[in-house]
Amino acid sequence: MEQLYRQDLILGLLPNKENALDSTAIHERVTNQGIDVDKRTIQRDLSDLEQTYPHVHSRPKGRAKLWWAEKSLSRLSMLPTDAMNLVMIMDHAARFGMAAQVQKLAPIHDYAKSLLKGSRPAQDCSGKVISNTRFVLLEPSLVKPEVLETIQQALLDDSSLEALYLKRGATEPRQLHLKPLGLSYQDSNIYLSCVFKGLPKGNIAALPLHRFQSVKTTWEKLEAPENFDINSNEARSSLISQRSQHPALLKLRITHTLYERLRENALTPDQKLEAVADGWWLMTGHLHLSQGLDLWLLSQGEHLEVLEPIELREQIATSAKRMMALYEKINATQAVAYPHHSVSCHLTMETQQ
Q: I need a surface site. Which of 55, 88, 204, 353 has the fewest CB within 10 A?
């Protein structure tokens, strides 16, 4: 306990880099605080602190060492549970297209991890929290760091930009004069919500950052839409392909397997689950129609049937029929090209049943 108190005191006494002190001066400061220990003890404490905390540094000066701390980090006060939360959030962000941004915050990330490691190997909790998903993540596209930094600064300064943008499928980049409105980190990519010259009035564009070849600030300012809100229906329509102005009433017929999942992780804030015939369940709730909802419904396969809205039911049914047609075509082709293989697969399936 005395060592912990003493080292915590030393952390508070360490100066910034410009005013770095040797161990003799630090020992004197500690002594002035009423703690009577020898200089060797202080030297051991300093070595321990440098290994434990990434914001504590030293550099040689003759036969001695000068010590200092990055004061911006030394002022942080973080509980181990908060450090665990921060590491988890930053690691999760790195996996979803923000690795470059997390790397720039490496001192804070390292500081949080140092709190999890503790002062003894037995206390190391840094490997007990990870970021994971059961879904397959696409690799993030490459965004030029200077492009992101310029756009971020333009958002802070409320300025406009000139950009070279290569549209998907195009062979030559297009010059855009645009007003950045916000950034959306979604899936494995970063999207810029913006307006630009030539865009119909009232429309909001969502442009992926990896398609920008260059950007620079411009003196000619474009006006942002009045009272723009990146969470508005107009912005979300372009960012996440939201199709409805208001949440639509969903009615899904789901299996018991999916019921167990949704009972723990609801699909909508107002979700209701009701048992129906033959072991199936009825799920009702309100949600905006969007591409994300389409993908989730299709990913559930045989575990759900869309009942309402009717237009959504017809859309999902059409996608399912097209998918089935692909597999039926493949099965027919295989039966002609590989008849013995088809018989073998059929016998194997019968044996497994």
A: 353
